[in-house]
């Protein structure tokens, strides 16, 4: 079953508690938290104090996407704040093998993220060690951007490489996911869908999550046929 991980980036930052509550009652599986430092990406969002505050009442796993420079300095702080999943960018890590294993030693789900222009080859050697690969399907930093169609082939490459090393790691697809792109992303190999704008711009979070789940099931059916996803 494909997991639905709405991103708070498009929620009302003046009322994150209500946003989390709407995801918990709306049937989401994870809460995706986009941490941005204004250096790795041209935007600045939330940090450890906000995550610690959310952790006090959130029941869903907190899936933190660290779009920050020098994540090694911060991984322990985010784990202590309550992060259940910690995903670092391959482009920001000088010693990715050490970083991934440190995240696992802290007891968190260890993820590695790739920007759209970064090839899968950049993480080839670490694939057997990670719990999750985040494929960014937009350039990071902002919500409500259009899905980049060429990333579908990249998702499928990650899917094939993970199967080749017999990894059970999840593929998280992040950026521009809505009721149309969700099918293609899952058909290509996504096991977790991140969606911000589509979920929080909908009249009902619950309906948006349910629609994404239904579209993901269609993608799973298409993947089972072996059909290669092609976006119209
Ligand atoms: C972009 C973030 C994504 C983004 C997804 O830098 O990593 O998680 O918030 O939002 P939408 O679904 O609006 O593209
Ligand atoms: Zn993200």
Secondary structure topology:
Blueprint: E1 3-6, H1 16-25, E2 31-36, H2 48-55, E3 62-67, H3 75-81, E4 85-89, H4 96-105, E5 109-114, E6 132-136, H5 151-164, E7 170-174, H6 181-188, E8 192-195, H7 197-200, H8 205-224
Parallel strand pairs: 1-8, 2-3, 3-4, 4-5, 5-6, 6-7, 7-8
The protein binds D-xylitol-5-phosphate (DX5) and zinc ion.
General description of the model:
This protein is of the alpha/beta class. It has one domain (3-225): TIM Barrel, CATH 3.20.20. It has eight helices and eight strands. It has helices at residues 16-25, 48-55, 75-81, 96-105, 151-164, 181-188, 197-200, 205-224, and strands spanning 3-6, 31-36, 62-67, 85-89, 109-114, 132-136, 170-174, 192-195. Helix 4 (96-105) links the parallel strand 4 and strand 5. Helix 2 runs parallel beside helix 3 (75-81) and helix 6 crosses helix 8. It is globular and about 45 Å long. The chain binds D-xylitol-5-phosphate and zinc ion (ZN). Zinc ion binds next to strand 2.
């Amino acid at each position: 079953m494909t997991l639905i991980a709405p991103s708070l980036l498009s929620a009302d930052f003046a009322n994150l508690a209500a946003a989390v509550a709407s995801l918990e009652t709306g049937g989401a599986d994870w809460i995706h938290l986009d941490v941005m430092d204004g250096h790795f990406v041209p935007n600045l969002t939330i940090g450890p104090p906000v995550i610690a505050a959310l952790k006090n009442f959130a029941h869903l796993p907190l899936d933190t996407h660290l779009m920050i420079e020098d994540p090694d300095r911060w991984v322990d702080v985010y784990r202590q704040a309550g992060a259940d999943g910690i995903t670092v960018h391959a482009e920001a890590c000088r010693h990715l093998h050490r970083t991934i294993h440190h995240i696992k030693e802290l007891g968190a789900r260890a993820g590695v993220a790739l920007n759209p222009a970064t090839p899968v080859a950049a993480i080839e050697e670490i694939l057997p060690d990670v719990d999750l690969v985040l494929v960014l399907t937009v350039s990071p930093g902002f919500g409500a951007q259009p899905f980049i169609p060429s990333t579908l082939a990249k998702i499928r490459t990650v899917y094939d490489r993970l199967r080749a090393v017999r990894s059970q790691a999840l593929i998280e697809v992040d950026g521009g996911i809505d009721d149309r792109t969700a099918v293609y992303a899952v058909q290509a190999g996504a096991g977790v869908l991140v969606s911000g704008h589509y979920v929080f711009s909908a009249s009902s979070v619950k309906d948006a999550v349910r629609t994404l789940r239904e579209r993901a099931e269609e993608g799973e059916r298409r993947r089972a046929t072996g059909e290669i996803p092609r976006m119209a």
